[in-house]
Design brief:
single chain; 290 residues; alpha/beta; seven-stranded mixed beta sheet; 11 helices; 43% helix
Length: 290
């Protein structure tokens, strides 16, 4: 895991960081330089750079001019960006006490793409889940087969890997119990095994009897360039982002404990193999919960 810098009240508001990361991805995906687009929004090159790093708010008029045309997003996605900006900037401008500027709830059109942009930008990440495989590791069909989650067609693809620092994935053993439901789940486990063998992720399984304080069922820590850390809790139709000292103490500390309480990586891989073999053999789900 890449070293994280100390976070405090001087850090940019979380919503601005997510928005800026998303805008930077769109610009680079369309092979546009900052010099080619900053004039469109009538802002300087340095202002655009600050927007993309989360250090400056983006006015809605600027967003309209910046996103029109060459970034190629749909009208519905544009409306989602505007609503997200409006909602998160309201917290900042009203000068609410911490942690409000460092919490951003994104349930608007295109939220999946903004989450994917954060993943694309991350230098390193840690994932924890008690019920689902993390989003960037899911095979097609897995979410719908498990919970009926909307699959959706996303503009921004999930990355094959997470930066130079890589990704640590901690799954509670109960996630493997879901494999008994059918071949999609067996294929999902095989996908995890392949990712481990290719070195794209480090994976550990958390025993069911681990004594950890309850937190959201799915949690991700993204380390962005410069050491900025975002914590994301993903639901069926939204993501909540948090940053700052309070978030690092709560969520970062929890992830540290989860890694420490998990079994070693070699043993975790054996548990994956055992789970896939068991579902192919028709073993009942109680096998996974022992």
């Amino acid at each position: 895991m890449k070293t994280r810098r100390s976070l405090g009240m001087a850090d940019p508001p979380t919503g601005r960081v997510v928005t800026g990361t998303y805008l930077r991805y769109l610009r680079e995906a369309n092979k546009l330089t900052a010099a080619e687009v900053h004039g469109r929004a009538h802002m300087s090159h340095s202002d655009l750079s600050r927007v993309e790093s989360g250090g400056r708010a983006l006015a809605l008029s600027e967003a309209a001019m910046l996103l029109a045309g060459r970034y190629g997003i749909s009208e519905a996605d544009f409306e989602g960006v505007v609503r997200f900006i409006s909602e998160t900037e309201w917290y900042v401008k009203e000068r609410f006490p911490s942690p409000y500027p460092y919490v951003a709830v994104d349930g608007h059109q295109g939220w999946e793409d903004r989450l994917a942009a954060v993943e694309q930008r991350a230098d390193a990440a840690r994932f924890f889940s008690t019920w689902l495989v993390p989003t960037f590791l899911r095979i097609p069909g897995y979410p719908n087969a498990l919970t009926g989650l909307r699959a959706g067609a996303h503009r921004i693809p999930r990355p094959e890997g997470i930066g130079a620092g890589g990704a640590m994935v901690v799954l509670e053993k109960s996630v493997l119990a879901r494999a008994w439901r059918g071949p999609v789940f067996a294929d999902q486990i095989l996908h995890l095994i392949t990712a481990v063998d290719q070195g794209r992720i480090r994976l550990r399984i958390l025993p069911l009897d681990a004594q950890l304080n309850p937190l959201p069922a799915a949690l991700t820590e993204y380390v962005l360039p410069g050491g900025m850390v975002l914590y994301a809790t993903e639901e069926a139709e939204s993501t909540t982002y948090q940053s700052g000292l309070a978030a690092e103490s709560r969520f970062g500390g929890f992830l540290d404990r989860a890694v420490d309480a998990s079994v070693a990586e070699a043993e975790s891989r054996e548990l994956l193999l055992d789970a896939r073999k068991a579902v192919l053999d028709g073993t009942p789900p109680s096998h996974f919960l022992s």
